[in-house]
Design a protein that fits this description.
5 strands; two-stranded parallel sheet
């Protein structure tokens, strides 16, 4: 019932969980070994996973620098895409400057016959550049959907909403890695790329598995006490981290602080989105013309077809196990490169 609105089957949900929690989970455990080595520890503590194990270079980016990078990162999309980026800047779609009372975060928003405006707080660091290219991905997606679809089919669904934004982020980080001028900078960028993938493609399927177990128990009329819930979360956490991380005695209670558990079968969509964008972005970065054409058609499609149909026509069928194989192998290659640097 929860996934009915996205027009997907249970098969897709379990396919995502199997890829992340079983088939390619070994790559995450390898990553934890690398972090142990980096931090000179035999076993990691839970809070070590929140620590920026690689220092961010003290590098500043003006707005001009940011747009130069954004245009370079998206150049393979062609002139029409870049003209929309130019419109966004010249027609002042973007509220950049931080100020007192401004809402936190960053957003792309508008309606069918307005510009897709962006609200952000640009502070001249690399994260600001990533945020800007992310939101521009949403805005270009909205612009192309609105200009190529009737109103009823113009608003794309959340299932595919993060593809355009994360493809842009992936293209930017590949460009920055390619152009990095020092080992430290390259190390930081690879660490960031690995961390982003883990957040979407390992942590979210772990969450989704926990959530699914609870819903199955509820469906079977089994009692769910506080202890039952936290014991399940602790057991799954031990399986997830293996012997690489010490669980704190209070770790099992953190499940109550994840708001997405109250959205019902939401978090697995992050994994699909990141796997799709990882694969698309790598192909586009190397100039695969067929992939570029299919992706641009996807951006123009709004919700004219089901999300699975749209992604399949974009060359990344989420029901095909090869999609996840390609995405997790991309992670593995990045991990090997990161290991070689440290």
């Amino acid at each position: 019932a929860s996934i009915f609105g996205d027009e997907v089957t249970e098969d897709l949900f379990y396919k995502v969980l199997k890829a992340a929690n079983e088939d390619y989970h070994k790559y995450y455990l390898e990553y934890l070994d690398v972090i142990k080595k980096l931090m000179n520890k035999q076993t990691l503590e839970m809070w070590d996973l929140r620590y920026p194990a690689v220092k961010e270079p003290d590098k500043k980016y003006s707005l001009d620098d940011a747009f130069e990078l954004i245009f370079e990162a998206t150049k393979n999309f062609g002139d029409d895409y870049q003209k929309i980026l130019t419109k966004a800047r010249e027609e002042k779609w973007i509220d950049y400057m931080p100020h007192e009372g401004k809402r936190h975060g960053a957003y792309s928003s508008g309606c069918y016959d307005s510009s897709p405006y962006i609200l952000t707080s640009y502070i001249n660091d690399v994260e600001s550049v990533f945020t800007l290219i992310h939101e521009l991905g949403h805005s270009v997606h909205s612009y192309l959907s609105n200009h190529n679809q009737e109103y009823v089919n113009s608003d794309y669904r959340i299932f595919v909403a993060e593809v355009a934004s994360t493809v842009n982020e992936n293209l930017l980080i590949q460009l920055l890695i390619k152009n990095s001028t020092s080992i430290e900078e390259k190390k930081f960028l690879l660490f960031r790329k690995l961390d982003d993938f883990i957040g979407c493609c390992y942590r979210q399927p772990f969450f989704a598995n926990f959530e699914n177990i609870l819903h199955q128990k509820a469906a079977n009329n089994e009692g769910l006490s506080n202890q039952t819930i936290t014991d399940i979360y602790e057991k799954l956490s031990k399986e997830y981290y293996g012997d690489k991380v010490n669980l704190h005695e209070y770790s099992k209670y953190t499940c109550y602080g994840v708001p997405h558990f109250y959205y019902n079968y939401y978090v697995y969509k992050y994994t699909v989105g990141m796997c799709v964008s990882s694969v698309i972005a790598k192909r586009i970065f190397y100039g695969e013309k067929e992939q570029i054409e299919k992706y641009l058609n996807f951006l123009k499609s709004g919700s004219s077809k089901s999300p699975v149909e749209l992604l399949t026509e974009a060359g990344v069928n989420p029901l095909d196990e090869n999609l996840y194989k390609e995405a997790f192998e991309n992670f593995k290659k990045d991990l090997e490169e990161f290991k070689s640097l440290i």
